Amino acid sequence: MSTDSQQNITHSPALEFKSSTFSVPVLVLAGNDVIIIEQQLQDKVNMAPEFFKNSPLVFDLQELNKHDLDIDVAELTKIIRKLGLLPIGIRGGDAQQNQQALKLGIPVHSGHTVAASSETQKQQHPEPESQAVAATTTMITHPVRSGQRIYASGDLVILAQVSAGAEILAEGNIHVYGSLRGRALAGVQGNTEARIFCSDLQAELISIAGNYKISEDLNGAVLNQPVQIYLQNHTLVIKDI
Amino acid sequence: MARIIVVTSGKGGVGKTTTSAAIAMGLAKKGHKTAVIDFDVGLRNLDLIMGCERRVVYDFVNVINGEATLNQALIRDKNCNLLYILPASQTRDKDALSQEGVGKILDELKKDFKYIVCDSPAGIEKGAHLAMYFADDAFIVTNPEVSSVRDSDRMLGILSSKSRRAEQNEEPIREYLLLSRYSPDRVKLGEMLSVDDVQEILSLHLLGVIPESKSVLNASNSGTPVILDEKSDAGQAYADIVARYLGEDKPHRFIDEKKGLFGKFFGSK
Ligand SMILES: Nc1ncnc2c1ncn2[C@@H]1O[C@H](COP(=O)(O)OP(=O)(O)OP(=O)(O)O)[C@@H](O)[C@H]1O
Ligand SMILES: [Mg+2]
Question: Which of A159, A205, B254, B266 is placed for a possible disulfide with B211 were both Cys, Cβ 3.0 to 4.6 Å?
Answer without folding.
Answer: B254
